[in-house]
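C-alpha cells please, single chain.
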Amino acid sequence: MDFEKCPECGSPKFFSTQSDRKGLHTKCLNCGYTGSLIRGTSLLALSEVRCIELLKLGFQNKEIQRTLGIKEMTVKNQLWAARKKLDAKNAPHLIYICLKEGIIE
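Here you go.
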C-alpha cells in the first residue's frame, strides 16, 4: 500500500514496510520517518506508541521523559498528537482505544 506523501516532510517517497496485527508499518525514504497506520486512517508514530505504553503502566509525563530520554514537553506533544489522531477525549480514553484496537497490549 502506498501513501500520497510523508506526514513529516511531505515527500512522495512514503511506503508501507510490513503489516502485522497492530497495523501497517510505514517508512519515508526521504527523511526516515516511521509510523504505524492504525484504524485505517490515523498514522501513529512509534514514539507516540511508546509514550502510550508507558502511560498505560501508570507513568507520569516526567517518568516517561526520563525513561525515553526526551523532554517532558515532547512527551506531552506525543500524547496530544496521538489523542488527536485517535479522537480520544483524554488519556484514559486514549489507552482504552489503543487496547481495544490492539495498538498496545
